[in-house]
Design brief:
The structure is a homodimer of 622-residue chains. By secondary structure, chain A is α/β, with parallel strands linked by helices.
């Protein structure tokens, strides 16, 4: 490390020197060195998100895009795009502490859970062997346990002789009852044998891998109870903001680095959860994952290339289960890593888990479930039938492609309204750093109501504003980089001392995203020949869906006007459904039935959707 | 390697320099460096088998045991026990090329085999996906194949997207139909998917792991035909001649080194078989093993400690199957390594395979199966019932504990008789190097017949020989190391120029071994209340069983006199049964039924056996 070809990187309290041999940009170096950086455009120098600040060394002349997207003050202060910055000897750069604090996507689940998990522990006192009872160790256990399984995984078998003798033939069995239904344990799969009684050490982790956020729930498998939850921004953001960019990255560089990123992140999150609950990761026996189909492919190291192009074919959407060690998940060495089943390339296990959480398949009334994340997944139906589709909302709701857009991080403007003056709140009540999805929706709804935005999506220049626009709003209507814009936060109230705007282009992005969701909803309703009035419950799920203001969503036409009064926020439905699947094998089996049962409608080839999309381009209540 | 703390080791054409840092004896160094040396006593300096010759350097003063067991000529020539020899800088030692050539234990199997293997390949043309048929790759295969399996092993799944697209959705499936019975493939387990039609590349290897010899059969899985066979002495001999010594070694040093030795040897044998048949190991999809229970434990890395002490408890005797990669077996990376089921700690899968090969369970007539190796395993029964026992014959029949005893290697005296003169044959017609089991039996039978050995086992001194002893025999009656002995090969006909004797002590060893087998047979007959005359066939199996002269066995009383005329040599029955199990899933299932069906009789706690053992100590026809 004494070579001069190294640079120093700081992120939060972390500082490290890294060699930049064979690396062309600071972004590449950050990715190689395990730093988390947002790079929604995949490093092409266009999105302006992978910001770093050069503390020592020559930041060089800014590029055209850097000049366009960064103020002179920031450029002078050394801020640059990591993807456009060439590392040089002894340079020092600072990376924003990106995943330090996230909006608490994942709340603890308070509602009572079924306590009938597939994975169980059973204590057993074996009869010691003798010259008249020479049954082998394994056969002794199988006979005593009435376990219909023929074997044990090899590593457990290699330890078995010592295990059974350690506590004088008192053992605890780890059993997977997935396929059984009885009180006893026939058709169980024996996964491990532990010496003595280890039943008090028995935990699971449910993990919702969102494209933007990863949430992990620590579940007490004895009491069917979530005791803690922890979420982080998905570190795969460094490979792109959306699944398609990440798939492209994997096609160029292989699936392994992307898989390693999510596995490493999950291991870190499990370490956080276990440490702060005074447990060891060895006391965790199951890591059950639900994510969209691409996230699940990355988790298991499956090649997602087929999902990236029409006709959007995954390797599998089946429920999978592997020894956790095979995936590099650091829990008990005999533990399992499982994945819930999905429906199609763009309607994944997270949606199946959300359906479970909504309990919409338990009722004869028709429900509509909308999970708005980077993609919008929509499910319509009841206990008889279910229809689903996925619509490319784009990452606008997650803050990408929005001039001052950010994810749900500290300082993000997350609500906005007109209380005399236009005013909003930020996450953590911190100085504003940007606008997240729910804030943007509120701002747009307010601007629509006050007439600053027309139904066509045009953001009016100050000189064209109708007289009806209240003057506190009118005063914020300005221009930014030569186009009409609305000043969301004045310079003096922001962290960087520069005003935050919603631009005309931002409104266009919102319009496309809104149209995609709304058209998806109307296509499903039309296919099922169900009027919106016949839908009893509209469930909102997902990172953005849970935090958006339903009135704003109705105001801009993201949700159909007819749904007013029947909107219910589920929170992180995917996470909840995954926890439910961990604590109940009936629910886990139900996931497989749902995955097989849902009829998937491919919107990319649907003429009805194309028509609806154009129709829904108009803002306002539809 | 320029350090002076190295010695040079030669074995056959192989020569290598090795550091002896931290090593106390040349035997340890040989074991560490992967040289094969016999060390039946486990390196305690008592058996005199781990011979090396010091070519350069100081061989040092011979030990007491070396003086006792090695002639002055050999000592002067530099021959020493490797276990008693201290390595010194620049020493050069020569190790006998021990496993160069072995008696061909394993003959090709000519009899027609069932062609209905559990492991099959099936070619399939999949419908390419489209926007109206978006089934995932795996589900597309499962649906088309009517395969009742939910998944693929992870490594195969990770390659699946590329595999199905490589040959335009034409694929070959690798299926394990173990549990199915139909013509089609329900209840099959899908192990791998290969691009295009790969059905012509489909081989299996059946491996009989004997304590002394390992035999591997190359099987054409398409045509159910063995095309080649290859055998080597088991390299675990370096850890001891018998299973108990090897178990002790594993208890001190862990199972891993012993496992690594057999896995490495099997990989080498598969490499020999594939190379000389112009195949790649990647074209082999199954390595199916049958060995005694200890050998199978070592193969799978299971702890055999429980087998070594009363009540002789194995980890498992069940049929096991693992991805070959998990055991380090180098065949196709999606291939399987399997083990046939066994019966008890001392009646293993090799006996189950031998029962299959004898077809004794297909008939209502009663058969007796005797597999004489290091242990003697005996099975009595018919299609209704089967009894089995194991008797500690000791390794005398394998050449251990016999003064001039050797395994079935080149130069071993393997037959002997009195044709006017006492005369014998050697394996490979080479200059004599020692006496193997079948030779020893012939010699003993001849000496009994001529009255040189009394029924009590006493080898008469020359001066006590009765007049009836023919003079060519009498002339060979001499003394060796002060005790009566019979000169088997005069000095001028041996490789080392020193005469080979059968000593009085050797006759005692033979007597113990013979008594153990004969008492086992009589205990089973008594338990089943079956007179020997009711036994229709007596099958001889195993390394020694197959090569011994039945008349000699009857003459010394190793086999009951009543069996005369109904003795049939099966050859390597364990190997044959393993090949039969590879080519027929019915036979494989039959192995499991046999393992469950056989009633095992523990002789160590049987008073009947103790009585019979003393009775059978007498030589001669019983």
């Amino acid at each position: 490390m004494s070579s001069t070809k190294t640079i120093t990187i700081r992120q939060g309290t972390r500082e490290a020197r890294h060699s930049f041999e064979g690396v062309h940009t600071v972004l590449e170096l950050l990715q190689r060195s395990g730093f988390t950086v947002a790079a929604p455009c995949g490093g092409s120098g266009t999105c302006g998100k992978c910001l770093v600040r050069v503390i020592r060394g020559d930041a060089g002349e800014p590029s055209t895009m850097e000049r366009r997207l960064l103020s002179e003050g920031r450029l002078a202060g050394g801020t640059r795009f990591a993807c456009s910055l060439t590392p040089e000897a002894n340079m020092e750069v600072e990376v924003p502490d990106w995943h330090g604090k996230t909006e608490n996507k994942a709340a603890l689940i308070a509602s009572p859970l079924d306590n009938d998990p597939a994975l169980v522990k059973r204590v057993m006192q074996l009869a010691p062997p003798s010259i008249t009872d020479q049954r082998p160790d394994l056969e002794r256990i199988l006979a005593a346990g009435k376990v219909e399984t023929s074997s044990l995984p090899l590593p457990a078998l290699q330890e078995l002789a010592a295990t059974v003798r350690q506590e004088e033939y008192s053992v605890t069995l780890l059993l997977d009852r997935k396929k059984g239904r009885d009180e006893e344990w026939p058709a169980s799969r024996l996964l491990a044998v532990e010496p003595g009684d280890t039943t008090d050490r028995f935990w699971g982790v449910a993990i919702d891998i969102g494209t933007t956020t990863v949430a992990a729930y620590l579940v007490d498998l004895n009491r069917a109870h979530t005791v803690d939850v922890y979420s982080e921004l998905n570190r795969q953001a460094e490979f792109g903001a959306d699944v398609v960019t990440r798939i492209s990255y994997a096609q160029k560089n292989g699936v392994k680095p992307v898989q390693a990123t999510i596995i490493g992140q999950i291991n870190g999150m499990i370490a956080v959860l276990t440490e702060r609950n005074k447990l060891s990761p060895a006391e965790v026996y199951l890591a059950l994952v639900a994510g969209n189909t691409t996230m699940q492919h990355f988790f298991a190291g499956l090649d997602p290339a087929g999902i990236g192009v029409s006709p959007f074919i995954p390797v599998t959407t089946g429920a999978l289960s592997f020894p956790a060690e095979d995936l590099g998940i650091r829990i008990n060495r005999h533990g399992l890593a499982g994945m819930l089943p999905g429906i199609s390339g763009y309607v994944g296990a997270d949606v199946v888990a959300a359906i479970v959480a909504s309990r919409m398949r338990e009722r004869s009334e028709i429900s509509l479930l909308i999970d708005i994340g980077t993609n919008g997944e929509i499910v319509l139906g009841n206990k008889e039938w279910l229809l689903a589709c996925s619509t490319a909302a784009g990452p606008a709701f997650e803050g990408a492609q929005i001039r001052f857009g950010v994810g749900g991080i500290e300082g993000a403007v997350n609500t906005f309204g007109l209380n005399g003056n236009p005013t909003g709140t930020t996450i953590g009540s911190a100085a504003a750093t940007g606008i997240c999805g729910s804030g943007m929706l509120d701002i747009a709804a307010m601007l629509l109501k006050t007439g600053v935005i027309e139904a066509t999506g045009r953001l009016l220049p100050a000189e064209e504003l109708p007289d009806s626009v209240p003057s506190p709003v009118r005063e914020r209507c300005a221009t930014f980089e030569g186009s009409p814009a609305f000043m969301v936060v004045p310079a003096e109230e922001t962290r960087d001392g520069e005003a935050i705007y919603l631009t005309e282009q931002d409104v266009r992005e919102l319009q496309l995203a809104k149209a995609a969701i709304a058209a998806g909803v109307s296509t499903l309703l039309e296919d099922a020949q169900v009027p919106i009035e016949a839908v009893t419950s509209v469930y909102l799920a997902g990172g953005f869906g849970s935090y958006m203001n339903a009135e704003s969503a109705l105001a801009v036409g993201l949700l159909p006007a007819g749904a007013a009064g029947r909107i219910e926020v589920l929170g992180n439905a995917a996470g909840i459904g995954t926890v439910m699947s961990i604590t109940s094998r009936t629910v886990a089996q139900e996931c497989t039935r749902i995955a097989e049962h849902v009829r998937y409608i491919e919107l990319s080839s649907s003429p009805a959707f194309q028509l609806a999309y154009i129709e829904q381009m108009t803002f306002g209540e539809v």
